[in-house]
Records
---
Amino acid sequence: MPTSGAARSTPISSNDEWRRERVAANRRRQIRELAFRLLFQVDVGKLPMADVAASFREAVPRDRTDTRLEEAAIRLAEMAVEHLGEVDEMIQGAAEKWPLERLAAVDRNIMRLAVTEMLYGHDVPPSVAINEAVELAKKYGTEDSGRFVNGVLGAVARTHCASEESTTGEKPEATPGDSAGQAA
């Protein structure tokens, strides 16, 4: 606890800005997780996105006045469904040894969501989409899911997101030692 005469090392405005950024990042993570769960239901249940979204909206407690989080998750899942064919081709191209239908449903849908964000999420750098997907894979997938998802998404990013490196200076690739060829 600083004394009354102690100098503050970080200005209050910086702390407030940092706190707002953390809250925003946490909200985006929640949106991704909800969108993954919606997309998983569409895929595994062979259900139309509209039906899954309607059921999801009905499940939101009636006393909630702010449903922006849920609506953002629905929009993200809808975007993934809208671009499913193109996204699946990219995943299949990066995971040549693993036919899409043989991939674990958790891994498949996490990667679908991440590729959608990489290509159509205007403010989501590929490196962020990959990191968030790996975290979801560790939470919902198998012991090997994180490495597998990282390898496949790194290959997709290198092939389809080359412009990120030239505009941000970041390299959109998997961490060393990870490979799309590893078993899921």
---
Amino acid sequence: MNELAKLLLERLGSAFKSSTGANPSLCITDKDMIKKMNIRHHLTLFTNINGVQDLMKFFATCKLAFQSSVIAGEPNYLRWKDVLTIIREWRISLTDFVGQYVQYKESFVQFPLDASAFVYLMQVRLELEYSRLSSFEVVRDMMTKLKLEYDSFYREYQTLFGQHVQRKVYDESGSCTEYRRLKQPSLVHCFFPALELKTILNKVDTSRYKFPRTTQHILDIMSVQNPADISILENEPVEEFFDHLVEQINVWLDWFEKFVDIFLCIIEWLRNCKMEKADQFYRELYNTRNDSAITLLKIKTLIQDVLKIFEHFNHLPRLCHLFNCTLPFEIIDPGTVSAPDQSKLFIAETKQFRPNDNFKVNANCIDGKIHRIDGRRHVRWSLACEQYPYHVVIEYQPDGSSGEYYALQSQKFSSRDQCLLRGEFKTQRGGHLKMRIENPSQHVPHTLWFQIKSNALSACQLFHGIFNIEYGKCFDSSTATIKKSDFVTIMDRVFSFIDNLLDGSISLDEMNELRVVFCDKNINVREEVQKLFATRSNDDNARLPMTTATLATSKTSSDERIEQVCKWLETYQYYSHVSIIIDCVKIFQIISTEANDQSMNHLHDLTIDNSRSLKEISDTYNDVYLRFKKLSGEHLQLIKTMVACPNVVEMMRNSKLYSTDGLRRFQELRDNLTTQFQFQERNNMILNSWIITFTLCVPFVHNARDLEQFVDDVARLKIIDENSCEHIKGRTQL
């Protein structure tokens, strides 16, 4: 009998679908026969609706059951809600159910789906679909298709809405996306008159409305006061109370988003250092940016747990500053108009090296360009136009649920002299840089050329070098997990080392541990020292009464100390590279033996007294500082790279391109290949790399009179970009 019933339902479903709901249909009018058939009982065969095919069988049986109920003259006619409650599991969305019903609605003209049945469907599908159906516009669209009256729907929906408000809104178990959406105008207020607010509030756990407690360190880093606890006292009309609640929760969400922006990279670093629980917290914090279903209660609990990690991090503000994460978004230059000659040069270089970096705006149109920016980036953008007038709007919209954006620039250009716009910003959160152009010309289309340079936010090499030294003294690569207390101890030692370094009291013997950092990393000493001083100065200044005179004196004193420490560390940096410079001069025979340069002999004999302190290095080794002070960290890194890649210099020297005739041939070859590769991006990149390599090799292929001339030749090099040494290393692989 079960097999027969299944076969019968298959036939009924097929007939219903193929006839667009016209079949099957009851032709029997005998009440006794109808009662014996008991079609209503066949509905109990449906326990699950697994897809559209099952829905067709269900609709066909419903139609016959409704007809039989009427013919049999039952005192209580079968209703849609009675039928729907039989189904224990729905594996079809409400949207699909309504869509299929509307397609076959002519079959149910005598028994239309009513408001109570629709609300019931919303209730059983609520947990799975609420993120999509919380917009009343979607519900209203369904009601229109079903031809439901709003009054009857509201009466049926009020109870469900009250349950949802308690569960999702007042219990903080609603998703953050929902609270963001509730800020927008909607029909939600239509349900408030029937809402039993007192009943709802009596069931709410008031402890959930307490904002997480934070230390002074966290307050200083966040640079904003903590949001207030949320008041749930019913002392205002329900509409105003609800709006105020949503507003307060969104203030919480803004604070939580800023917290994640600032501390995510710190947690990621702790994870890489294998600190306990850091991996779990990083994954959960990262997911808050992308998980639209995450609830307010969950993110609040997560941040409370993260705050517990930071309770004993005494140097947390300094750490955040060194990691460049204290500001979620920083506008360095909103957009500056450059000189007219720079505009022509920029457009020419863009056409030559990046011919695809352009877009067109037709006459009397508004158009633009959207560029994806990853998280934790330092972005420099440029935009130029060959025609005028035009109006440009530059914005940055970070990822996130709040929908915020930063207006960088909005400017009208009316003459050819105003054609190049350059700006700069830093962002913790990835997002989109939007360039919108309005072309008011009635006939002339505009072509705009752009450049977007996006680099990772700079790290403090000295800090990481010192940390790695202290970390290596306590743990090795086999260590699985580090306790928070052990990590705090390491951090205390790291910042003690930094303070001694800035005071100059550290010994040169201790500095030897850092020597590899000075040699292996491209360190800009001034930037590094300014970062280290800025964090310590904040602590120092916090203990002083801030008057105008105090601020001026403090700034002067700080600048002087920075200059002094820079000289100490630059001297040490030069000393660390002395052996490399000697090797460079020897390998490439830069100084002829006939020159008899006594300065080289002095360098050979140079030794350092490790018992002295860093502050004494300038007096003892001032000669080293004076000889090499023209060289930057990039120049020293270039010298080291050349020593590591001698075949590149030898190859360029053998090409004989540095003589007068060779320079002429090089110029001709460069011009010809530039024209030939104008629209071949890859070949253009290779050509550009060769040109950079040719320029960087100049001091190493020519002979110098003495060491001073060699230093001058290197110092005159224009380091074309921060990755110049990579071009040299790339030649060794060809």
---
Amino acid sequence: MEVYSNYMVFKRIQQHNHQVGGNLISVRYQPLTTKLTLHSNNNQVLQKHLCFRPFHKVDVCIDGIFYTVKITWVILWQSRLYSKQTLIIKELLPQRRRRSITMISYGMCILLIRLFMVLLEP
């Protein structure tokens, strides 16, 4: 039996759903266009192109409650949802976060192997 994981397969749209209170919050990210959309109960509350700016802070209103979406993608991906400085959702796109950690770990392993090869060279 062949085990196949689509963990590292490129997906055109990365998405994840969260339950906050009585609302279903759906987060979608398109890596090719860097477009992030946030839907609450099938109503779009946020659409933002992240482009080349690595830090984003956007205020959104969901059912009369104001939330803040903070996105950072300098080295590691991080996207969080806050309500009045209180963390509501730790990671909006956990697959994207895991993938960024995996890619950095892979890069560090390759870098260490190359470094050891240079140091051990006669």
---
Amino acid sequence: MAPATSHDESLVRLSKTISAKIKRDITIIRMFVLRLPSVCTMEEELMSAVAMLRSARNAAIPFHRLPIELVKGIFASVPTMTYLLLGQNKQVDVWQRRHLADLGELCTLMLVCRQWRDIIIGIQSFWNTVDQAYPQTQTTSLERSGDGPLRVILRSIPSVFMSTLCNNESARIVQIHHVGVVGATAEEHLDFPAPALETLHLTNDCIFGHDPPTETKHAVQLFRGHTPRLRQLSLHNIYWFPVLQTEALTHLDVHMCSWDDFLAKFMGILASASNLTDLVLSSLTSTSSKVASLNAQYPNASVPLLHLRRLHLRKADSEDAVVAMLAKLVLPPTTAFEISKSYMDSPLFSEGALSSLAHLPVMQVASHASIAITSNPLQAAPGPHVTMGQLAVAGAESAVVCTMLSLPSGLATLAPVVPAAQIRELWLVVVSDRTSLLRTPVAEVISAFDPAIFGVDSSTLRHCLRPMAGTLETLVVGGNVLPNVLEALVTLDDAAETPQPLCPKLSTLGLIMSFGAPPIQDLMSLIAARQEVLQLKHVRVNYFRPYGGPRPESLPELDSRFVSVEYVQSREHPMMALPPVCKQEAHARWTPWKANLDGMLESMDGEIRD
């Protein structure tokens, strides 16, 4: 072993000093109750010291002395983790982040030294993608891929080399991404058996609603009907119907496709793919005749998808089609749903969608609900108002969010949909002043808020909360609607001489201080004035970033009325607790749900975000 240097001895002394300080600080923590910021400061100091020691350790072991297998593992992470494929067009590999290595990055690594070059060449996963857009690398990639699985990217009409490759190496092709493919091309060039094919992505650069002159709408059999291992299928702007073996399918993404009798053909795919776990359908616009054809061919509850985990209906502008499709499916209570319209000005979901939501399996196991209400226009003005909103309902394993719903009666419209008798936690956000706040003083915005416009007056709130009286434990509301909520929570029955709490189990009240909310001291005074009746235990105040009022960390005279009061600074809008399936990224079309500035839940497509 090499003798210790003075530098090494200094590091040892430093580590002992840090260790002693940590032990001393832990002793203090056990003896005294420290404020959380102090603990956080100690944690930052510790992590900084650990990072420094790790840097010293890395410096003591040069990279070229690491074991070859470890170096290979490091290099294996070279590909940029994004959903975009390399090539002339930014086409999306929906199901997994990009597995392709940038040739420029590989060349840079290969030029460092002979050892690195040999390592890079020996990692087959760097060379197993053959892209028609790069003919100069096709032969090299094919040779260095060995006998491992192949990923093929075709562009419009396949070249002679790519056609020969597909026919000769069909047994080891696991992924095919065909960009700019029309029916005639697919019929001619995708006519080879693909026993190992697991992922197929077909896309065309067509404008939705305008078929190209050379396009065909008839069914086209692909791969001679032999794709026994096909698990992931994406169809984007495809105007012809692909006939495939789909028994093993687990992921299906259909985006802006136009087929004759679209709904019935789409349901036919679902009926043959009983193992689906992820289903994405985008830009759903169907005529009444297609809905009628679907109803004629498939009875309600005739297509079981008992393994489906995530269902995302994006840009679902045909409510009749959504209602008809959901009625045909048999789904487990663990299925999570995200249903949304294309644009805010598109027709809103109405009674049909509300009825479908009420019958979803997740409603039978739900315990949390979040309602966001807004209006167009936002403030009191001459002329009619359109009240609309978002409904999110969640259980332990699944959830559903639907945006935007027409709410002609405000909050009362959702009464038949929300499983009130099961709800233990309710979030209520009223988006009343975001755009007005940009050009109007806060006082004027608050005075302009009219609860009647949004259907959140105290009588309506009381009517909606009454069915939750036996279960509601936590209520989180925006500061702008709190006065009406407090009035609704106190009731005076004819048989009672004194006011009674509407929800006796309610113990926690949350406040979201955002756009145009009154000062927190005024709101806390309102809560304290009703505390004798409500008997709340816990109050949590979230100062959201856009809130412009004073932000006290405590109000001792008022806080003493409760068991605990917590004041929190929030950079992101608070939102209700969601099950893991809604918080974890599964693929580009299913990213974590988050609350936007208005408090509405939304997710962002992976390719847009990256």
